[in-house]
Amino acid sequence: QEELVASGGGSVQAGESLRLSCTAPGFLTNDCGMDWYRQAAGKQREWVSSITPVGYTGYAASVKGRFTLSQDKAKDTVYLQMSSLKPEDTATYFCKIGANSGAWCYDLFKEWGQGTQVTVSS
């Protein structure tokens, strides 16, 4: 199985932006969707956003209007553009196979990526 590789995390000031990426060879070309989750220290993992294989997106209320998902099929990469970041966005962000994906996606790819840390200071 291929691994989902997340990257792009870092430390920023409140109000700044970051773009996270998650990629795996063949992920989008095999029509797999993607979910993003995040987990802050001492808290449960929470859903952030989703993108379907055809590009429909959904966002948690806490990030709607500030985060935007996009995908580049040629690069098999999904991007999570995060703007107007707040200290409460500080967490480890994980990409995973979207719940709307076909069963073959779970055969081809490991379900969860390894996570990338985002730290937002005030």
What does this structure look like?
- This protein is mainly β.
- It is 5% helix and 43% strand.
- It is built from one helix and ten strands; from the N terminus they run βββββββββαβ.
- It has one helix at residues 103-108, and strands spanning 5-7, 10-13, 18-23, 34-39, 46-51, 57-59, 67-72, 77-82, 91-97, 116-121.
- It has a six-stranded mixed beta sheet with strand order 2-10-9-4-5-6, with no helix packed on it. Strands 1-3-8-7 form a four-stranded antiparallel beta sheet, with no helix packed on it.
- A hairpin with a 6-residue loop joins strand 4 and strand 5.
- The protein starts with a strand and ends with a strand.
Order of helices and strands: EEEEEEEEEHE
Radius of gyration from CA coordinates: 14 Å
Please work out how many helical segments DSSP would assign: 1
Helix content class: under 10%
Strand order of the largest sheet: 2-10-9-4-5-6
